[in-house]
Amino acid sequence: MKRKQFLALLSAALASIFLVLGLQLVNPIQSPASTTLFVSAAASLKDTLEDLLPLYQKRDSNVKLTFNFGASGALLRQIEQGAPADVFIAAAKGQIDTLEQKGALVPGTRSNIANNRLVLIAPKNSKLVTSFASLKNPGVKRISVGEPRSVPAGQYAEQVFQNLNLFSALKPKLVYGNNVRQVLATVESGNADAGLVYATDAKVSTQVKVVATAAESSHSPIVYPAAVLKSSKNIDAAKAFVKYLSGSEAKGVFRKYGFIVK
What we know:
CATH topology of the largest domain: D-Maltodextrin-Binding Protein, domain 2
């Protein structure tokens, strides 16, 4: 009798073990799912955000950041046309304002993460350009600026020229870039005698020199607002990343590249 009871208990125990093993085979233990965040960001943020990438990866290995860099206006059009984006970081408040007015942002996620300065640059060995006023000289043939309809740096450049009463004289010399990094490249290659870019862009180049810094009163404030888009499929992860951009670790990297952070 005891033997029969023992065998019955043993059979029940084995059945339970096999049942558990079977369930694990059908539903194996899942590791945390990785999340991909699509970040559309102004071209002038390229070096900074790429530097932040491994730092954030150490912080949250389950989040993969994918960057889409370009002119703020062009990025806005992409987002409006349905391009995937979880976070948008522009180089001016206008593009973020547009999305906010349309109700396309997650409330409470908008924040200004950095500021910048606008500078006049020339090829490193140039002696033609010595100031904003020198741009009127006949020897200066081409001045590269961002396309003002889509590139905030181009809008700021026009404001500076108008403030200095130079716009009418310089307009025939202007050549336009699709983003601020293209403006920088045009001056680096010598295809323009001068250009207007952000201080942070000039800082990463060894082929140009800063001739002058535009007075802050001569243009609208250069601010970089970031926000989470309502269309995001990963709103919590996107919120965490935007919050990180205002933290001490991120601020250190922004300062390294010459951005102004509080």
